Amino acid sequence: xHPAPSVPxxxxxxxxxxxxxxxxxxxxxxxxxxxAVYSHYRKLASPGCGVxxxxxxLLLIGPTGTGKTLTCETLSRLLDVPFVTAEATSxxxxxxxxxxxxxxxxxxxxxxxxxxxxxxxxxVFIDEIDKLKAPRGETRATSGENVQHALLKIMEGAKVKLxxxxxxxTTDVLFVCGGAFVGLAEIMSQSRSFGYIATKDxxxxxxxxxxxxxxxxxxxFAYGLIPEFTGRLPVVARFGELSRAMLVRIMTxxxxxxxxxxxxxxxxxxxxxxxxxxxxxxxxxxxxxYKTGARxxxxxxxxxxxxxxxxxxxxxxxxxxxITSLFADPTLVxxx
Length: 336
Ligand SMILES: Nc1ncnc2c1ncn2[C@@H]1O[C@H](COP(=O)(O)OP(=O)(O)OP(=O)(O)O)[C@@H](O)[C@H]1O
Ligand SMILES: [Mg+2]
What we know:
Blueprint: H1 12-20, H2 27-45, E1 58-61, H3 68-79, E2 83-87, H4 88-93, H5 97-111, H6 116-119, E3 123-127, H7 143-156, E4 159-161, E5 167-169, E6 174-179, H8 184-191, H9 202-213, H10 217-223, H11 227-231, E7 235-238, H12 244-252, H13 258-267, E8 272-275, H14 277-290, H15 297-311, E9 318-323, E10 331-334
Parallel strand pairs: 1-6, 1-7, 2-3, 3-6, 8-9
Antiparallel strand pairs: 4-5, 9-10
Helix pairs in contact: 1-2, 8-10, 12-14
């Protein structure tokens, strides 16, 4: 029997609104994730209804830097549950997978302030799960497959003994797997089952598109994950590529956006920072070429402001810094 969660379980729409403050776009993925997470924590909050509701572990598919980890992190904050991330690739590199898994759960317990029961309701995010695929045409057990088997056990629910002798029960831990799954689109286009149904009706077409864009366990199997594993990930949320407009919003809209952070950094120096909208568009343009989603935004922005941050402390008369273009010197406005 678990103690009651520290916050009441928010409704899916509330979860989506909470995510909206930090994660830009990805509306479909947010909804899928919100419903899955809501059902999961609702189930924990109202045990013993007689019907055993199976656990819905989540799979997040999408290109790098599009908000998968950010979404999980934000979720754990909204729900006030402990959260850890791990990388499937590093699990595959070790000879001692189970020790590595134990270490992940130990980190979860630490995040839970040493409370194993609280850790037992946490979220574990395992990234790069797509790298565990078996090489094509290979049938013998590869290390990627071993990792999948090891993960299966804890995803199903196991009592894992920590080195300090305590146990973490993973039955109610929400496991979220993530990966870019490069090449999955091609596999899916070959397995589209509803494409031949001709329809002129817009609504029907939308429903068909929805069904066709659903990632099926068989697609993941074709990709190289073992069936037992794909079977444990019934809920799939897809994160899309970020458009240039979205990148601009990412830099300016979230509570802890780059803009908000640097305005604060300059404010602490007694300087007001203004950045023209055009600058964000220029940064987004460059970031799009880097093809790392929103990941490169910070680096580009830092490069822009770091020479200014170097000069500002030397000149206390600077009151305002205006950046009008990525390719022009900023205007420094001094007092007096
Ligand atoms: N949709 C988004 N909204 C707001 N910020 C975002 C979004 N996507 C990415 N970012 C920013 O980019 C950073 C990297 O994103 P995140 O770690 O979520 O990527 P990811 O999808 O997990 O990528 P990877 O597959 O490489 O792990 C975040 O810390 C955040 O600042
Ligand atoms: Mg990530």
